[in-house]
Amino acid sequence: MKRLVCGTALAIAVTMPVATLAEGNLASDATRLEDMVIDSAALTLSVNEFELETGQYYRWRIVHDGGEEFQFMAPDLFRNSWVNQVVINDLEVKPLGLHSVEFDDAGTIDIWFVPIRPGNYDFYVPGYEERGIAGTFVVR
User: Fold this and answer.
1) Beta-strand relationship, 134-139 and 119-124
2) Which of 22, 34, 119, 138 is exposed most, by the fewest CB atoms within 10 A?
3) Could you tell me where the beta strands, DSSP code E, fall in 53-106?
4) pTM here?
């Protein structure tokens, strides 16, 4: 009986996933992504695809020229990321979750986040996707 219990314990220990521990602070030294500029006159984005890695800390800057009011959405990315902060005009917001950000005028919004789950995540301005204000985060 004792041998069976030891063998079972060994089989369980071998098949269980090993916990991985992060060394240091994941929310330090953010990798700055290329600034994404929304050109409201041309209805274009300066960047339409970002390649990211899970567990990396990123700073995403969205710049709007103020020509038209836009709600910028990336709900699936935000749902599958830890969002540390959102900075608007040097004012920091520490959200529990994030669905979208909106520009009423010209300005810059920085979003600091760590993607947690791999996948392809769309970002867009609702109603303008087919006109060019859309893109994808590819998270590996």
Assistant:
1) antiparallel
2) 22
3) 58-64, 70-73, 81-88, 91-93, 100-103
4) 0.77
| Domains present along the chain, CATH in parentheses | 25-128 (2.60.40.420)
pLDDT digits (tens, 9 = 90+) for 42-62: 889 999 999 999 999 999 999
pLDDT digits (tens, 9 = 90+) for 125-140: 999 998 889 999 999 9
What confidence tier does 22 reach under pLDDT thresholds 50, 70, 90?
A: low
CB-count exposure of residue 23 (10 Å: 0-12, 13-18, 19+)? exposed
Q: Rounded to whole angstroms, how far apart are CA atoms 19 and 138?
A: 25
3-state secondary structure of 54: coil
